[in-house]
Design a protein that fits this description.
With 169 residues, the chain is an all-alpha fold. Helix content is 51%, strand content 2%. The protein is built from six helices and two strands. It has a two-stranded antiparallel sheet. α1 crosses α3.
């Protein structure tokens, strides 16, 4: 069912702005009590109108829930971006990263790009096994991780790129 049609059926203004689940519920109950087939025993179309109201309520409720979920995901992504920007600026965000645990983008991305924030990288304690002390600076942590992978800070291979041999024609 079209959302505009659903708003019209529930007698909600089309340009009424954001709709809350509570306001939708109240309006649906008010109209459902008025159009219920038991309240209108002589009206043959009452059952059809009542069913249409239920379908309109379901469609609008799904749209409201989807909008709320999108708003929560937007807020979560904005908070993560803010945290990462503060980390790049050199601020200590180790406790906040550890509290995040794992970030998993919404399923609409089509791929699972989950990012695990490992608190071990940012811990201030030294490793018991080898005595290695992990860096507390996020930039230093990335430099070390890149070095372990054989990459420069920009993500290029340390030895440079191998050029393919030039073939003579």
């Amino acid at each position: 069912m079209d959302l505009r049609q659903a708003r019209r059926l529930l007698e909600l203004p089309e340009d009424g702005g954001p709709l809350t689940a509570e306001a939708l519920r109240k309006q649906y109950l008010r109209l459902a009590l008025r159009t219920h087939p038991d309240k209108n025993p002589g009206d043959a179309s009452a059952a059809e109108r009542f069913a249409d109201l239920g379908a309109a309520h379901t469609a609008l409720l799904a749209a409201v829930a989807q909008g709320a979920a999108a708003a929560r995901e937007h807020e979560r992504a904005a908070a993560l971006l803010d945290l990462l920007l503060r980390a790049v600026q050199g601020k200590d965000v180790s406790n906040e990263l550890a509290a995040l645990g794992e970030y998993r983008p919404p399923a609409e991305f089509g791929v699972d790009l989950s990012v695990r924030f490992d608190s071990r990288v940012l811990a201030a304690d030294s490793c018991d096994e080898c005595g290695h002390r992990p860096p507390t600076d996020v930039r230093q942590a990335f430099r070390e991780l890149f070095r372990e992978e054989g990459l420069t800070e920009e993500g290029d291979p340390i030895g440079g790129y191998e050029l393919p041999p030039i073939r003579e024609v």
